[in-house]
Structure formats: C-alpha cells, structure tokens
Amino acid sequence: MKESLKALLDILDLEQIENDIFRGRSPEDRQQRVFGGQVAGQALVAAGRTVPPNRPVHSLHAYFIRPGDPSVPIVYTVDRVRDGRSFTTRRVLAIQHGKAIFSLSASFQIVEDGPAHHAPMPDAPDPESIPLAQDRLTPLFGERFATDFVARRPFDVRHATPLTWEAAKDPALATPESKVWLKVDGELPDDPLLHVCLMTYASDMTLLDTVLLNHGLAWGDKRTMGASLDHAMWFHKPFRADDWLLYYQDTPFAGGARGLARGQVYTREGDLVVSVMQEGLIRVTDT
C-alpha cells in the first residue's frame, strides 16, 4: 500500500473524545490550509460512526465556512437530528480555534427497493491506456515536481481529457468537461463507510479544475485563486474505492467570481454510483 494512502486512512480514523465528539488531524505534509476533501471525509466518518451500519449514507450537503488550520486538530461535533424508521439525519460541525470551519448534513437510509434507472456512462478510454500522471506532469514541471506530486496523492488519477496546465499553455485544449479515472493506490478492507468517505475526499480533488479548464486557467498560474464554497453528494449504489471509477465532470455556469461544477461517478461496468455538485470561489487577477 502506498505511504500516502496509509496516511490518509490514518487521518480518517478519528479519535472519539466524548459521546458524539471526535477529533481529527491533518497530514504531516502540511499545506497552507486543510484540503477540503479531508475535512468533508472526516466529517462523514464522524456522522457515520453514530449510525447503525445497516443504514448507508445516501446524501450529504456541506459548506466550507473558514480555511482550516493544518497545524492543529479539528474537533467534530455530531448532532443526532433524527432517527426515524427508514431515515437517519446527522449534522456535523467542524471546529478549530473555537470557530466553525465546516458544516455537514448527512442522511442515511435503510436499504429499500424501488424503480431504477441511471444516465449512461460517457465514452472514455480504458484507464490502462491513459498515460500515468507522472508522465503527463514531467514535461510541464520537470521530473522532480512530478514525482513528488504523485507520491503525495493517495489516489491513482488518470486524466482522459486535458490537464488544466496543458490548456493554460494551449487555449485550443480548453473544454467544459473532464473525464478522470481514479482509484486508491492500494487494497482496502470491506468497510462501506470507508469507501464512501474516500470518494468524498477524492470528489474535491479535480471538480473545480473543470471550471478552470473551460477558461484556460490553472492553479499556480500566478493569477488564479479559489476555494470550495459548498459541496453536495448523492450515493446511489455501493462501490469500491480501490476499483477504477470514472469521474465525469462538467461546468454549467461560472460568473460573479464563482464557478459551478458537477460530477458523476461510474464503475467500470457502467453503473452510476455517485453524483456530485460543487460551487467554488474563482478569482482571477490581471498579470
């Protein structure tokens, strides 16, 4: 198992410090602020630990309120809003320095039958036929940067569409959609909550990139800055985060210094298992 995946599994294993109160930490490889997918994944872990395992999560809605400080722990308080016959509702608040940095509401449901359909999976090349991330990044940033970037990521991520940095160099590559194959870089235990929490983490890695990709912008281009504002996910069917998943993403709108992106996650067999929506702050300055 890749070391970065071991570290991620460790930070998702929250410490329970009181009834419905949990404590999480950030990776030792600290960035300027806590990665949004991390706090969302940890919050869902906290919520899930207060719900019977026969009630899987089917949706979450979250707001990123303040930047997280990676140098101090995050305290997660869980409010048991409702325990009904079919549905369970939880509200989670993430707190640092005495202030809320993130809020999440999640709904869990017993397994039931009903009418079924789903949107078909878009065409995409097999993940094995796509160049590795390191091979795509090396011509752009050099071998050392590419190696370090890939080593820090707990997921094997392979883009079937242009990278934002490629489109920033060649405007002809700009597109409003992105197709990304991803899976964790190692084998996981059979814990359904863990798999959905890992997908929650991964869902924030490339989603706002789709907005940038449509405008020939890229993080680190010295004129673009942004942050996740809110995030919503719907979990349709069970899946495994250690199997290849196609993350199809597009952007229907950008304006007012905000961009909207949506995603659909498919198994390799073509089943739609997760839907995602996110709005993010996107500010561009003149250079």
From TrEMBL:
GO biological process, one term: fatty acid catabolic process
Residue ranges of domain Acyl-CoA thioesterase 2 C-terminal in the record: 177-281
Catalytic activity: a fatty acyl-CoA + H2O = a fatty acid + CoA + H(+)
UniProt keyword list: Hydrolase, Lipid metabolism
Keyword Secreted: no
Domain Acyl-CoA thioesterase-like N-terminal HotDog: 30-109
Molecular function as annotated in GO: fatty acyl-CoA hydrolase activity
Pfam families linked: 4HBT_3 (PF13622), Acyl_CoA_thio (PF02551)
Family, similarity comment: Belongs to the C/M/P thioester hydrolase family.
Subunit and partners: Homotetramer.
Family annotation (PANTHER family): ACYL-COA THIOESTERASE, ACYL-COENZYME A THIOESTERASE 8
NCBIfam families given in the database record: tesB
Record protein name field: Acyl-CoA thioesterase 2
Chain's gene name: tesB
